[in-house]
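Can anyone check this?
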Amino acid sequence: MSRHKKHAEHANHERWMVSYADFVTLLFAFFVVMFAASQVDKRKVGKIALAVQVAFQQLGIFDSSNTHMALSLSEPMPFSDVQMVENAVRTEALGRVVSETPGQPVSATHNSTDDEIRRQLEKALAPEIRHQEVLIRATREGLVVSLREIGFFDSGSATLKASAEPAIAKIAAILGPRRDNLRIEGHTDNVPIHNSVFKSNWELSTARATGLVDLFVTRYHLSPERLSAAGYAEYHPVASNATAQGRALNRRVDIVILSGNTPAGPAAAALRAPPASTSNEPTR
């Protein structure tokens, strides 16, 4: 028999490429998954953000914040905006769990007393509310009765209209017997004022607030200890100053019915006022 010569085996130095290819494939799959997870559907999250924002505003949460998240529905929402929504949800949930005293859950932003006084005010001021001259809203500090300039003041003036006195009398009749502290806030739009009486919107907003305080004390005999006045000029709007409609909503005097020991601060931005038609915007 013939003998076959055995050839020597050569070492394969390319086996590492198999492991390397597997590693690269896994790495590619990992980054694809990470990229897909980071692309949030902005349309869906935008709807969630809007729902959370509306719910919080109706409850009076974040009442001193003027920040409104832009809800574009065309591109994925940035991760920072997603975090903002998630943090808001966590804050709201935490507020319902933490207790002021052991065994006593934190109450909502209003109680039965607030509901009762709101019903009384809405019933008494039904004509003014219907004509969009008065807006009543709840905040964390208490109820806010917004008196719009169009129904209560002439443009650039701090003198109350004679036609507005019945509405003020109804408010005083409801608030007079109560013990709640009241903060009267004057607000304007961002259009500079031009007249011989007031040099700035600061002066106009303060004059309107102090004038209403004086009226409550002298004519309707509310206790001065319950009252305070503040002028915020154009710096706490409830609507955009870019439109005539928004500027009309911003020109107002807010009567803040404070509930409990509430820290001082503007109640203006608690809730964006609902749209209202403004036929003729007075010029100043």
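Reply from J.R.: I decoded it. Confidence is low (pLDDT under 50) at residues 63-77, 89-110, 268-279.
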